[in-house]
C-alpha cells in the first residue's frame, strides 16, 4: 500500500485532521489488541541472545540496512551472527535457511535475501522455531529484522529505528496514522533508539520524537551509497516504504535523474511493469536504476537491464554501537 496523505499531515490541513479523528477509534482498538497480545504471551527464550531491530511505524525507516550493519559488526567482533526474519512477501513459512542458489524473493521475501549477503539468514513466520533453527545451525547471536511488536520470542535487547524527518507522523495509530502502537509503550520496551538522519543534517528536536526524557542510548545513523552513482541520465523507480528517500539520495550523490517512478512497498514487478519502465527510459535516453531491495524482486530475466544502487547504514559513532553490542554479549555470557 501507499501511505495515505493524511498520515503525513501534521494537522496542517483540516481534511487530514478530520480523517484521523474518524479513524482514531479503530486505532485505539488496534493498539489495545496489540497490548493484550504482548501482555498475554509468554515469550520463548532462545539459547543465544536475540537482538531485535524494529520500529514503531509502518513503512520504511532503514531497519534492514541497520540489521545488516549490526550483523557485520558482530561478525567482525568474532561472533557467529544469524539474521532472523518473518520473510514477509514470500510463500515459504519456514523455518528455512535462505539460499541464494534456490530461493528468490517470491520464496523468502526481499529483505532476507539482502541480509543473507551479510550473514546466514533464517526466515520463519514462527519466530521461536526460526531462532531454534539458527541455534542448531551455529548461531551465537541472532539479529531479528523487525518484530518489536511480536511477543513470541524473548528479546535480550531491542533497537527502535526512527526516521528523523518523518518521526512518528501525526502521532496516531493505524489506520488513523502510521504508528503500530503508542510511542511511549514501544519505547518502554526498547534498549536504545537509532535516529536515521542524513550526514550533515541537524538532528531533530528530541522532544518531538519523545526521546528527550528517554533514559536510554540514542544513536544516529544514515544511509550512504556503497558504490558511486552511475554516470549518465537515470530513470529511477522504487517500491519501498519511502521511495522519495531513495530518489533524494540519488540526487544528493550527484545522480542525473530524468524521472522517478513510485510503486507500493514490496511491489511484485511484472514483465509489463518493466516493459513500460523500459519504454519510458528509452524516451528519456536514460538507464533504469532501482534499490537493492527492489532489484531482487525483479523477474530474473530483467535484472541485467536494471542497475542496482547499493546503500549501507553508517553510524555517527560506530564505537558506541560496538560497545553496546559487546555489553549485550557480556550480559548474556556470549562474549
Automatic annotation (TrEMBL):
Binding site for ATP: 57-64
InterPro entries named among the record's database cross-references: LpxK, P-loop_NTPase
Catalysed reaction equations from the record: a lipid A disaccharide + ATP = a lipid IVA + ADP + H(+)
Short name of any one Pfam family annotated for the protein: LpxK
Keyword Phosphoprotein recorded: no
Source organism, top-level taxon: Bacteria
Keyword Nucleotide-binding: yes
Name of the top EC class for this enzyme: transferase
EC number, as in UniProt: 2.7.1.130
Pathway: Glycolipid biosynthesis; lipid IV(A) biosynthesis; lipid IV(A) from (3R)-3-hydroxytetradecanoyl-[acyl-carrier-protein] and UDP-N-acetyl-alpha-D-glucosamine: step 6/6
Keywords tagged on the record: ATP-binding, Kinase, Lipid A biosynthesis, Lipid biosynthesis, Lipid metabolism, Nucleotide-binding, Transferase
Described function: Transfers the gamma-phosphate of ATP to the 4'-position of a tetraacyldisaccharide 1-phosphate intermediate (termed DS-1-P) to form tetraacyldisaccharide 1,4'-bis-phosphate (lipid IVA).
Recorded family membership: Belongs to the LpxK family.
Protein known as: Tetraacyldisaccharide 4'-kinase
Organism: Glycocaulis albus
Lineage, broadest ranks: Bacteria, Pseudomonadati, Pseudomonadota, Alphaproteobacteria, Maricaulales
Amino acid at each position: 500500500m501507499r501511505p495515505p496523505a493524511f498520515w503525513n499531515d501534521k494537522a496542517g490541513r483540516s481534511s487530514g485532521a478530520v480523517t484521523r479523528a474518524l479513524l482514531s477509534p479503530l486505532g485505539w482498538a488496534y493498539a489495545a489488541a496489540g497490548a493484550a497480545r504482548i501482555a498475554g504471551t509468554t515469550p520463548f527464550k532462545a539459547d543465544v541472545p536475540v537482538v531485535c531491530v524494529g520500529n514503531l511505524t509502518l513503512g520504511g525507516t532503514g531497519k534492514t540496512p541497520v540489521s545488516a550493519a549490526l550483523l557485520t559488526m558482530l561478525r567482525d567482533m568474532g561472533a557467529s551472527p544469524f539474521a532472523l526474519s518473518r520473510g514477509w512477501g514470500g510463500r515459504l513459512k519456514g523455518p528455512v535457511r535462505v539460499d541464494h542458489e534456490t530461493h528468490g524473493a517470491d520464496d523468502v521475501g526481499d529483505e532476507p535475501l539482502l541480509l543473507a549477503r551479510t550473514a546466514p539468514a533464517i526466515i520463519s513466520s514462527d519466530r521461536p522455531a526460526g531462532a531454534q533453527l539458527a541455534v542448531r545451525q551455529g548461531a551465537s547471536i541472532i539479529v531479528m529484522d523487525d518484530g518489536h511488536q511480536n511477543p513470541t520470542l524473548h528479546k535480550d535487547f531491542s533497537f527502535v529505528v526512527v526516521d528523523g524527518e518523518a518521526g512518528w507522523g501525526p502521532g496516531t495509530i493505524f489506520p488513523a496514522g502510521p504508528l503500530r502502537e503508542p510511542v511511549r509503550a514501544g519505547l518502554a520496551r526498547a534498549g536504545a533508539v537509532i535516529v536515521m538522519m542524513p550526514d550533515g543534517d541537524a538532528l531533530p528536536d528530541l522532544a518531538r520524537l519523545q526521546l528527550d526524557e528517554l533514559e536510554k542510548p540514542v544513536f544516529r545513523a544514515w544511509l550512504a551509497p556503497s558504490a558511486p552513482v552511475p554516470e549518465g541520465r537515470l530513470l529511477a523507480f522504487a517500491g519501498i516504504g519511502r521511495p522519495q528517500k531513495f530518489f533524494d539520495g540519488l540526487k544528493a550523490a550527484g545522480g542525473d535523474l530524468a524521472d522517478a517512478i513510485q510503486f507500493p512497498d514490496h511491489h511484485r514487478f511484472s514483465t509489463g511493469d518493466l516493459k513500460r519502465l523500459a519504454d519510458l527510459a528509452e524516451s528519456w535516453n536514460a538507464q533504469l536504476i532501482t534499490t537493492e531491495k527492489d532489484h531482487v524482486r525483479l523477474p530474473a530475466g530483467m535484472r541485467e537491464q536494471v542497475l542496482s544502487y547499493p546503500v549501507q547504514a553508517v553510524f555517527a559513532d560506530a564505537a558506541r554501537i560496538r560497545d553496546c553490542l559487546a555489553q549485550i554479549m557480556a550480559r548474556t555470557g556470549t562474549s
